[in-house]
Amino acid sequence: MRAEPDDRVILAEEPEISPVSVPRIFAVGLVLPFAHPVRLILGAVLPGLLIAAATVFGPIGRIFTMWQDLGLDQPTGLAAGAPPVMPRDLGIDFLEIDGILLLSLALWLCTWQRAVARGFGEPILRWLGSSLRRLPGYVLAFLIWTLAPAVVVSLPLAALGALVGRNLSAAPMSPRDQMIAIGEMFSSVQLWALGIGLLTIALVALWLNARLSPLPALVASQGWRRAFGRAWQLSRGHGFGLAVSLFAYTVLAFLALVIAGVIFGVMMFSHPDSLPDPGTMAAFGGAADLGVTMLIASWHASLGALMVRDGLSPAETIDPALFG
Length: 324
Hints:
By secondary structure, the chain is mainly α. The protein has 13 helices and no strands.
């Protein structure tokens, strides 16, 4: 018996998007960094080594050395009111620091999002190696995810700043006089309209950030092939829920920082004789800010990766040709 030609044709259909519950993945994302600390810490080893090398041998160390020298020279070596002499390559050092911190953050989030999107099922060495292989494309996806909303906000602000600057007097003015001049430049109705307009632009930027949140996770797990379209399709119909979730993560982390600061302050000031020195308190404050920033970053990244994990069909998730 011969099969008809039509019976031998296999239709290659696009994988369907599975239904995703944003409240459920929001709750899962809250506990995910604490449920898989090993993967989170292992993914931070290489970024930590990169930052440590930049601190010991690179621009971060040079900046710290310059600040220490300025602090030592200020009381005796500089005349009163004389501006400190800055190195000529200071701007280049800060640009290098920004690049190192961006690369470190992208490397850490690439490993984390790949692990979440694949359900933490990859062996550790393969997971780390594949994350490094996806890093160049991931950096581009990460920049699109973070900078596209920033562009939406910055362009109207730049236009407003140019309008205000053109109408201000060319004579030097103190910040207080500038605020008074700006207040006199617009009527109360115009100020309300500007406020509503800027709030609307900020909400649009947050929505765009939410819609693009699956993009870096897709690139980390499958590469750039059809990633942009798939990311936009995965988040379709979930823009509001994802935007609220991203905002809620930030608020929760901020509240945790405030509560920890209040507890620390009560403990310290209840024993005034054992107060640490200002340098130690500044170090603790910086460590707390860094911890909260990393928590927000991991929560935001988990949300997009969970969209990928739950939104893709099982056939697409396990296909080695797509997720190599």
